[in-house]
Amino acid sequence: MDKDLLEILACPKCKGELRLSADETELRCAACRLIYRIEDGIPILLVDEAEPYE
Q1: Residue 27 near residue 41 (C-beta atoms within 8 A)
Q2: Torsions phi, psi of 47, nearest 5?
Q3: Where are the domains of the chain?
Q4: What are phi and psi of 22, to 5 degrees?
Q5: Of 17, 20, 21, 45, which residue is the least packed, with the fewest Cβ within 10 Å?
Q6: What is the pTM of this model?
Q7: What topology is assigned to 3-52 in CATH?
Q8: Rounded to an integer, what distance in angstroms lies between the CA atom of residue 42 and that of residue 38?
């Protein structure tokens, strides 16, 4: 994923910072504790599609 794009992306729910996972397949919001998946290099930033993590 492009690092410049990652810097401007924000969580659609809380507008917080998103962090790229080590395997670069998902973005995580620490504030909301949600995971947004990345498909073919495109982040799916839909709250309804996000999954919670612990």
Answers
A1: no
A2: -60, -40
A3: 3-52
A4: -60, -35
A5: 21
A6: 0.88
A7: N-terminal domain of TfIIb (2.20.25)
A8: 5
